[in-house]
Specification:
Layout: E1 2-5, H1 6-12, E2 14-16, E3 19-25, E4 30-36, E5 41-44, E6 47-55, E7 61-66, E8 73-74, E9 76-80, E10 83-85, H2 95-98, H3 104-118, H4 142-171
Antiparallel strand pairs: 1-9, 2-3, 3-4, 4-5, 5-6, 6-7, 7-8, 9-10
Length: about 170
Amino acid sequence: MSKITIKDLHAVAKKYDGVMQGSFETEDKDYNFIYSEVDKALIFNTTLIRLDSKPCNYGGERYWFLCPYCKKRKTALYSVDDTLLCGQCLNMEYNSLNRTKTDSFYYYEQAKKVAMKIDSSFEWKGWQGNGVFPNKPKGMHQVTYNKLEQRYNKYWYKGQELFMNGVSRVLR
């Protein structure tokens, strides 16, 4: 599945005699497109996609795709089996919307974010990190490092607590 955005089109579009056209590649497919300003329609390979526009406050226009299925304005469409649909029609969900504070993985992710403030290339060994925190980098104040380590430990132990509670419920 590949994502196509309006920005992708603007980056490669060239205008010839009032018709905009271009081509670009995604990870799994090559696309050719033609846009007609009269029809406000875009043809991707063989698929017709309508566009909607709205004038901006300081000139110019902002464009959106109209999803072929739900007809709503979208900044991105996804290609699945030669069909272009929006994320909502494909029932795509964002991780941040699925995580709750009763989910142990939420806290593991928070702990990892704190560790990445110290070392941007930080990677856990194993799926939950085993509580390993990166060493203090040169030039960082000890007080700052201690605060980050304290926050990391708070998140990591809370994740461990929720994980073990979940395991104990399953084993009962």
